Every structure is written in structure tokens, then in C-alpha cells.
Amino acid sequence: MKNDFNLIAPVYDKLGRLIFGNSLIDSQRAMLHHLKADNHVLILGGGSGDILKELDKLEMRLSISYVELSSKMVELAKSKQPFKNLEVAFINQNAQSIDLPKADVVITNYFLDVFTLENLSMIMKKIDQALNDSGAWLCTDFRKTNSFFKKALIKLMYLFFKIFSQLEANRLQNFEGQFESLGFKKLDTKFYLGKMIESCAYQKPKLTK
Fold it and tell me: Distance between CA atoms of 28 and 192, rounded to whole angstroms?
């Protein structure tokens, strides 16, 4: 099965911290100030659930649909319970093959980078349809860089996940171009690891009648 992280789920977070330190979790919390109390949040590819702990720290009531393909990752995410402020529905399914719940906010952290260009375009259109008008899309991911070392590191990561997770993608795509084609407006951005990682908040345009 493509993009299956079951095999590396037990060591995924440890590997991330070993290579990138705290940058991965710091980047994921960077745009959370765009959330509001009582938002319905759709999280795609949430992994082991560290983002849920960060959302709970906001001390605001949130309802969350947590879509994750890896059953092992879902088990790890569920182990983070109980939460004080979150109502979480765990959905162990492929986001490409289900009807996504409607949401006020979408969070895709290190999720879009697993797709080929064709599938990226399709999944982003599907997410766009699930997001309410004027809703926020919080996206954190690796970005293309001119640094020889960083390009080599990203290439090595793709090779690693190709072997152990049957990753479908071979390289990073132009996420920003896809957002622009869907009409999203970038509200906020922050960089990490010398612009190797970018955390962004986008707003969906309001439907005009």
C-alpha cells in the first residue's frame, strides 16, 4: 500500500527529533493562533498525535476529525488521550478515498509532500471542497531550496520513505502554486531550518453570490 507509515510509526518521531531537533513540532505549532474556539478542525495525516497535544494546550474547545491512513499512527495518537479541550473523531482511512468532513480549519502538516503532482492536485481540490468559505488552511511542510546539503537531505528522505513506506512521490512539488490556483490567500508564514521548512496559514476565498 502506498504511503503506508505502519512500519516506521514506532520510531518516526524519534527519527524526526534526531535529524531536525525541535523544528518539526515547533513548525507545527507556529500557525495555531489562527484557530478560534468551537472551530471544527480537519487534520489530515496527523501521524502519532503530537499536534493534538499542542491543540489541547490552546485551552479552547475544538472538535477535530483526525484522518490518518496508518493504523499504527492512529493507535499512537489515541494513546495521547484524554484531552481537556478536544473532542476527537479518529478516522483510520485514506483521505483520497473517503468523503472528507466539512471543517472551519484544515491542518496538513508534512502531508502534502507524499503525493505526486497529479494526486496532489486532486487531494488539494478535495480538501478545498471540505473547507468552509473563508476557512483557514494551516500547512507546514518542507520546501524546495538552493542549498546543496538540504537538497541532498530531502532527496535522502524521499529514498528512505520510498523503501520503508512505499512513498508514491519522488520529489517535492510546488505547494504554493497549487494554493494560488485554488484562489487561496496567504495570511501568515514562518520559516525553519534556514527556510527548509515553511509553516503557512492560507484563507479560502469567500463565495460570492
Answer: 11
DSSP letter assigned to residue 6: T
Given a contact cutoff of 8 angstroms between Cβ atoms, the answer to whether 56 and 81 are in contact is: no
Helix crossing, 71-78 with 9-20: angle to 10°? 80
pTM, two decimals, is 0.95
User: In the numeric block, which cell numbers belong to residue 200?
Assistant: 503557512
d(CA 129, CA 206): 12
Cβ-based neighbours of 205, under 8 Å, separated by 6 or more: 133, 134, 183, 184, 185
Domains and CATH numbers, the chain: 9-203 (3.40.50.150)
For 117-164, the pLDDT digits (tens) are 999 999 999 999 999 999 999 999 999 888 999 999 999 999 999 998
Average of per-residue pLDDT across 190-200: 95
Smallest CA-to-CA distance from 115 within 55, 69, 50 is with: 69
Residue 53: exposure state from Cβ atoms within 10 A (0-12, 13-18, ≥19): middle
